[in-house]
Amino acid sequence: MAIKSAPQEIRIRQGDVILCSPELRKATSEDFDGSTSALFIHGFTADSSYLSDLMRQFEGAGFRTFAFEYACFNGIDSAAKSLKQLLSLLESTGAEIGKLVVVAHSMGGLVARAFVALEGGAKYVRKLITLGTPHNGTLRGTRTLQVIADWAESINTLNPLGYSIDTLSAKQLIGDDGPEPLLERIKAAKSPLDHIDFLSISGGYPYLEFGKNPLKNVIGNAWLQRHLQQPNDGLVAEVSSNLAQEQFSACMPNGIHFRSYPEYHKTNHSNLVNNQSLALLAASQSLLTQT
After folding, report:
1. Which three-class secondary structure state does DSSP give residue 49?
2. How far apart are CA 100 and CA 123, in angstroms?
3. pTM for the complete prediction?
4. For residues 162 and 202, what is the distance between their CA atoms, to the nearest angstrom?
5. Which residues are CB-neighbours of 242 under 8 A, at least 6 positions away?
6. Which of 2, 272, 290 is nearest to 159 (CA)?
7. Per-residue pLDDT tens over the stretch 201-245
8. In whole angstroms, what is the distance from residue 290 CA to residue 277 CA?
């Protein structure tokens, strides 16, 4: 089944963009005025609109907020290169970007990690927060990718003509992108990241909404829970979302993982971006690490 969201069609035709919130219009150099800023990165098949509530919490804490909207299917590393180019071009036209807090959901966290580790984006970042990011990738197999695409129906309006499991991003998510998988290259990167604080946040409710079809919800969740390690947020296992593990210590020496909040067992992959206490915690922690 081919699936692609309408906003993704726009990104493919018009190119990736950095948007300024709350209007979600294209950012200009004047929008980056040296203020305390946060950049938000959406996940697979999505666009920035579903991150609006999360962005508003950061705005209330005093942040100027931006969103990176990108073509999800062209490759995680391609998105990372595009983000670096856009920030560099804005900087060349007078933007005072400073050190950003980057907040990324799901696959967006992999884009952010590739940006700082492989593309020299570390110079723009002081803190990186990931929400439900599959740092170890997702389950292998085309069925997994179809489940991810079906989940996207709950947060996007989709066009049934564009998604393909053969896209590079899809292959990178399941580690099927060649002899040197992208996720392993990110882990092996030697970029100096000591100045960046890494915070990963997970959910523990093992259930996803796959749209309005109850039967699809039951079948999709039953399949996922047969294959995912426990605990998980319905799509990403705890062991994959946790950046504080030893395997990440070389590439992210300042990694901290957080799951000790009251709603952990009630928060699934989708609602990590809608939980107010998590948003406020992330904002307050970001203010504490200002340099």
Report:
1. helix
2. 9
3. 0.91
4. 30
5. 135, 200, 202, 257
6. 2
7. 999 999 988 767 788 788 888 888 988 899 999 989 999 999 999
8. 20
